[in-house]
Amino acid sequence: MIFPICIAVVSPLITGFADACGKHKEIFLVTQLLSTAFAVALFLVGGQVWLIFALLFSWAFSDAAMTAFTDSALLGLMGDKKGGYGQMRCFGSLGYATTVFLSGQLQASFGWAAPFYGMSLLSLTYAGIISTLPHDLF
Fold it and tell me: Which of 15, 23, 35, 129 has the most CB atoms in a 10 Å sphere around its CB?
């Protein structure tokens, strides 16, 4: 419930701020790294409910604009060939479904920690990809 509310409220604020200051790539990278850090911290905390809630909210807040930034970068990379946007989103959905399946397999084979570590590795890889994007892409 927290994630959809953050996406609806926070995403326009973050992307609007990025538009106003012209630092799309930097804000994209920082929010990706913060999102990863909050997700990992959420896994590592104990049973303190207030801390879990604070980390969950922080994760949702930092993750809210990821889809908007990703779509902006994707459209920038596509250039004049915007007709393939639907196909790219389709493959993104297939990748998401595959990741969910693989996370379940990791959890079943190696325990609850494995999907969090896998997500962290993918998120850091994604941050590395973001850092290589040209500034004028957005």
Answer: 35
